[in-house]
Amino acid sequence: MANDATPAETFQALSAAAKKISNPTREAWEFWSTYSEIHGTPPIKMSVNPNSVSWDQSKRISTAKKTIGGTTYFKWSDKTGRNLDPLILTISGETGPISGLGANGVTQSKTSIITLGGFAKNSRSFANGQNWAKLYTLTTQPEIDPVTFVPNIWEITYRSLLFPNIIFNGFFNQVLKFSDTAASPFSKQYSLSFTVTAVRPDILQLRNLIGSANDVNVLRGSIQQVTAGEPQPKVFV
Amino acid sequence: MTRLRYNEVITGFPSYRVFVAGFEVTEDCTDVSSTWVNGRAPSFVNLTLLNLNDKYVIRRDDMVSLYPGEIAQFAKAVPDSDLSKTYDAIVNQKQIPLNSVADYKSTKSKMVRYKQNPAFSIPVNPTNAFTGAPQGTKPYPIYPFIEGKSIFHQNDPVRVFMQDPFDPEVWYYFFAGFITQITDSVNGVALEKTITINCEDVSKSLRYCRYTINPGIRDPELIKTGTDLIKFSGYSSPLVNKNFQEAADYTVFGDLVKNNPPSSALESVPVVVQSTGARFNRLILKSGAGNFKPLPLKQRCYTIAPASNPERSTTTLENWQNVILNHVVTLNDLDILRAQSNNPESSQTVIQSLKAKVRAAQNANNFVASLTQEIITTIGTDTANYPVDGGTLLMLLPEGLGKLGEDVVAKDFVSSISMTSEFKDRRSLMYDLVDRVEFCFYADPKGNLIIEFPLYDFEPSDFVSPNTQSLKRGAKSQTLDSVRFTHTNPNGTVVIDNERRFTIEDEALESFDAVDDDAPVRTICQCNPVVGIGNTALFAGQMQAPIRNPKAVRLDTLIPIYGPRVIQTDPRKPVETAEAAIISAALELNKVNSESYTYKLPILPRFSAWLNRPMIFRHRNHIATTYSITHRVSWANSASTTIGFKYARGWAGQVDQAAGKLIYVPIGGENSRPVNYAVLFAHNRTANNNPSNDTSGSGTQSNGPSANPRGRS
Questions:
Q1: pLDDT at A60 over 50
Q2: Which chain A residues are within 8 Å of B505, Cβ to Cβ?
Q3: ipTM exceeding 0.90?
């Protein structure tokens, strides 16, 4: 930082550096789908990422079968010998002010939650409302395109401190869940439940990478390197 | 580690592999269930396949790939139709949907293209039914594909393999047969799509082959086909004057061959190896059923000699079970199950290379369990070299059937000769044959046909030779010892301890219901000898047959409880002599009384269970014989086996001091079973009858006869 910088410039530079260090995963999550791709709809970007993601992956073990002389568990393993069920991500967060109305009379907010690639119309809350609708619509898309018969595969680009950049393919197992309450008329609590059918890079590869880098950007680079060598998810086979 | 007797915790690892028409569909198969029954019915298997996105059904877009020429013309003529839009999306925009025929990597595409091979078409020359004019010869596909219908077809071959849940290195043949019914289901609520496939075992090949004797003079050329077996004689059964083994062979292999069939007895059937596309001709018997191989008699017909001359037996029960009927997947199966063909060496490279790989591993004492998977893949997918009905007819017979063979099997009624042809399928013929002597006929999961004499008088220990050591419960099987009875040698050979295999411990037993029923019990059986072809006066113009005295067997020890309940033998049995009548009556009593004390035991999955086998039920200390076996595996949910038992025996306080064993007697009373095969043949361990030799035809035979161990077989 140069000594002759104005206080404002210094503050800006320090803020940028602090942001980079303290919140290196500031890159937005993205939601997309095959159906969106076919119909030319760009990915939905989150300007504030979800505040909670829970990973839930059970193992295929049958309920204990009781025999007269004991108890038997059946473990159902696949070709690899593992018996893992699909991973289910429960993603939840809270929106900023959103409105289904135009700009007039609606309180402006500096903390919009969802934007469509930074696109804003008359007001932030109106744009947020539009993006909200798009996210909602994304979770209601058809499973199979009725004309081309192409099955819809959803995609989430997931970014956090633990997993800086991984892509999940799968499907929403329920429509966007939210509550519209009088106590909080503008922001909405929401949650998404997503069944993962494929992930890039492979979680086991990721496990090896974690801890191999001191800097998150280096780790992100390693992950991108691994991912680059992998084929894209097969939508059109 | 100390383990509580009644608190055993067992871990099982069920798994299976399913092949339909030579294609593996395991990943979509969620439910496998099978039923074996010892009776006049084949075994079945039911498969449930997930049909996500119509993976196994022909869709509109598939029709575009199947018939592009005609649809292209249509799309040009009517561009705005839905069909034209689909054509445009696939052909012009290259938008190939998942699980499409257009996607060459999909199972659907591979199967459709395999079945479209020109080898699977027949030339037809239809004529107009009104004018009689020929409509031109053209090849017609055996496997038509229709929008909205499954890509599977009736009689597609099916093989299922099952992993031993408690010894995962061991894989069993679980089923071999053909598709009988296909159900395409869509759940209206969840929009789940499934295909359910019902299959029948390889004896179905016999059902599709008929025989006729003395074809009617009016219609033979109109309704007979190339697979019919036709015989001209004065009898109504083709089995007349044949002994049991000859009659059974005739039913399966026809009348053209004995051993080593000459080329004139064979015909070629074009087949295609689906993995390589190699095409060649499989050789089958012209008058035989299916692809069953007429191996030399010594390799497929085994006998148990009388107890007085055990050294004359050509096999032991252990050898019969563990070697001849062995249904553990092994390397030898690649040779044993391969069909006879003019297959060039080049199309066998996969088989040869796999054999070399397994042998190398065996020689190095480094058997790799994964090679078992390759063997399964080869046998499951190569339906050209390994047809599901490519086994043979295996028989376990008493060395001599005595009067059973001479008078029951080889005789026949006389019936009038019909003016029109009467056909009968060969499976019914086989059931008739074994019913005459109360034997068992069934198909095994490998693709063989099996005939056995009843083994309900034996014990599990009879299936273990004295020189075979029972498995020791080593550290490896410490937590599995109640349900595990296999041991894999380092070279990959699986050893099965039959004594434990045929024992049901409490740890494996889910529940039980034993039923002691009064209703089926009979105490007297009457058999009326009839006039056979040998001395009938029919041809002499006399319709009145000579009167014969009826014969009966009476079970005196049961009469105080049950009273004199009389049953008559099946009048279809052509029993002529007094001796044969008594044997028939005794067998009939054995059969009906076996149903008085029965039980069905749901147990942990036991894929090594077998029909017509004695098993010990520890909880009640009974020995009974299996007559039905049902397995069910629902993926990621449950796995179980339910076995139905008849011919139950229990301990009535007697001990065989010499052998140091308990003596089990039929439930219902000692001497309630008038024929005891264990006494008659080779194994004299459960003597509980002293059959009288009084067969003088005095009218009533008390407490049963003795089957003459020497007969024409």
A1: yes
A2: 69
A3: no
Nearest residue in A to B507, CA atom: A69
Element (H, E) at B363: helix B349-363
B342 close to B280: Cβ distance less than 8 angstroms: yes
Distance CA B532, CA B535 (A): 6
- First vs last C-alpha separation in chain B: 56
Distances (CA, A) of A121 to A125, A126, A186, B123: 9, 7, 18, 70
* Rounded-to-5 percentages of helix, strand, coil across chain A: 25, 30, 45
- What does pTM read for this prediction? 0.80
Q: Which residues of B touch A150 (CB under 8 A)?
A: 95, 97-98
Per-residue b or e along A115-152, where b marks 16 or more CB atoms closer than 10 Å to that residue's CB = bbeeeeeebbbbbbbbbbebbeebbebeeebeebbbbb
Average pLDDT estimate for A91-120:
56
Amino acid at B174: F
Q: Report, as ranges of residue numbers, the positions in chain B whose pLDDT lies below 50.
A: 1-6, 413-416, 472-480, 533-545, 547, 682-713
Give A86's contacts in chain B (Cβ within 8 Å): none
Tokens of A191: 């949650």
B421-460 burial, b for 16+ CB within 10 Å, e for fewer? beebbbbebbbbbbbbbbbbbbbbbbbbbbbbbbbbbbbb
As a whole-number percent, the residues of chain B with pLDDT over 90 amount to 27
Q: Supply the pLDDT for residue B700.
A: 46
Residue A131 has pLDDT above 70, yes or no: yes
Beta-bridge partners for B650: B665
| pLDDT at B236 (0 to 100) | 57
Q: Are B523 and B567 in contact (CB under 8 A)?
A: no
How does DSSP classify residue B687? -
Q: Where are the beta strands (DSSP E) in B635-705?
A: 638-656, 661-666, 700-702
Q: Is B639 within 8 Å of A69 when comparing Cβ atoms?
A: no
Lowest mean pLDDT among A164-168, A173-177, B283-287, B397-401: B397-401
Q: Is B510's CB within 8 Å of A67's CB?
A: yes
Under 8 Å between Cβ of B536 and B647: no
Give the best residue of B65, B90, B95 to mutate against chain A (max A CB count within 10 A): B95
User: Smallest Cβ distance to B89: which of A74, A76, A148?
Assistant: A148
Task: Over range A104-115, report the average pLDDT.
Answer: 44
